[in-house]
Specification:
InterPro entries: Las1. Pfam families: Las1. This is Cell morphogenesis protein Las1. The chain is mainly α. It folds into two domains: 141 residues, no CATH class; 187 residues. It has 16 helices and no strands. Helix 4 packs across helix 6 and helix 9 packs across helix 10. The longest helix has 24 residues. The chain is globular and about 65 Å long. It starts with 11 loop residues before the first helix and ends in a 21-residue tail after the last helix.
Length: 399
């Protein structure tokens, strides 16, 4: 006898219609249908239980729609984001309650949920609500995770019709990047005897990643930041089964040509990747040996970028000041070692600046530091005034 399944929606096509309202293709130019999708999910919930992924998509999307500083206070916006994000994470992890007792981090890992989500959920629940910047980014990443792990699974029966997103141009940037990385990781498990074939695969992956970032509807630098996050979330750079003290040489050999090619195309990638590595390192818990081994892997990647000769010509793009600031604000065994590695690099930068500006004025360390700061500010639209008229406030100059 056939088993009957009761759903809150009329049929599968109705669910796919709501999916397209939550995740419209990039080519869609019509009105924003997300409020309508949230209302439909609210109605479905009145009819009975719905999958947590559907409810979480609606809650996170509704938090984004609530993000209006003219109508709502900043506090209420942060609270809405925090509540939606915490319910998303907690609801997912609570579905894995069977079997032996496991930590929330371990259950999240079983689901493929980033460990940073669990850490941020803990912060939002037990401490002050995170900043809007952090919450907005986490919400967007959560919606991308839900797309990859739930909404795309509705397509295999061939009922998706125009909803299918096989074309990279209509895929969210994070999804397209993950598909490329997952395909490469799957193929690389097979032993390749021909070095040329291996090099061709590495070059093809790097070029595909660069192309996706350039074609993204977001800025290229934002897409590069998304690529950095995807590399860590997919455990591409660190073997999830590594033990404390294991060598990372094989991993460096595998990924260096790819990451260096991407860096050569867009230097901002190395900046983003180093920031993501150190942020994940200081946020990661060290409750068990597995987590400590993962943190060690993050540190080893940073050490490799800082000290390896293969990265020497690209090291100028590392965010030295940011790495030092994070290490000093989060004292631990790993940040102390990393700070010691960064100090010589900082002196090397200052020495290089002094030698290159000997003919252009004073070469004191303060002058060099000011010059470096002014160059960074130029990237954000700031510049020095051509002339500066210094006088007390309220004093006018007669013509």
């Amino acid at each position: 006898m056939a088993k009957v399944h009761f759903t809150s929606w009329k049929d599968r096509a109705h669910l796919l219609e709501v999916r397209d309202e939550f995740y419209p293709p990039h080519s869609y130019k019509g009105p924003d249908m997300r409020p309508r999708a949230c209302a439909k999910v609210a109605a479905w919930k009145l009819r009975g239980n719905i999958p947590h992924h559907v409810e979480a998509t609606a809650l996170l999307t509704d938090a984004i729609l609530h993000d209006d500083g003219e109508r709502n206070s900043i506090f209420s916006i942060r609270a809405t984001y925090s509540a939606a994000f915490c319910r998303f994470v907690t609801g997912l992890v609570d579905t894995k309650t069977t079997g032996p007792r496991r930590t929330m981090f371990q259950r999240a890992m079983d689901l493929g949920l980033p460990a940073s989500f669990v850490e941020l959920r803990h912060e939002a629940t037990h401490r002050e609500p995170p900043s809007l910047i952090v919450l907005r980014k986490a919400t967007q990443r959560s919606l991308e995770w839900l797309w990859d792990n739930y909404w795309t699974t509705l397509d295999p029966d061939g009922l998706s019709g125009s909803s299918s997103r096989a074309d990279h141009s209509d895929l969210p940037t994070a999804t397209a990047l993950r598909q490329c990385l997952q395909g490469f990781m799957k193929n690389s498990k097979a032993r390749l005897t021909q070095k040329k074939r291996k090099r061709d695969q590495e070059t093809a992956l790097a070029d595909n990643l660069i192309g996706i970032c350039r074609d993204s509807k977001d800025s290229v630098d934002s897409a590069m930041a998304t690529l950095s996050v995807s590399l860590l979330e997919l455990n591409a750079l660190i073997d999830p089964n590594r033990s404390l003290g294991d060598s990372m040489d094989a991993t460096f050999e595998k990924w260096d040509p790819i990451l260096q090619r991407v860096t050569d195309a867009r230097a901002a990638f190395l900046h983003c990747m180093a920031e993501e590595l150190v942020n994940t390192m200081v946020l990661s818990s060290s409750a068990d040996d597995h987590e400590i081994a993962h943190v060690e892997g993050l540190y080893l990647w940073l050490e490799h970028l800082i000290t390896s000769t293969s990265w020497e010509s690209r090291r100028q793009f590392l965010p030295r000041e940011y790495l030092l600031a994070v290490c000093q604000s989060n004292p631990s065994r790993w940040t102390a070692i990393l700070t010691a590695e960064l100090r010589p690099l900082q002196h090397e930068l200052l020495d290089g600046m002094r030698s290159s500006h000997t003919a252009k004025g004073p070469t004191s360390q303060k002058h060099v530091a000011n010059w470096v700061l002014s160059k960074k500010l130029e990237n954000y639209g700031w510049g020095l005034a051509e002339s500066w008229d210094s006088r007390p406030l309220g004093v006018s100059v007669s013509q």
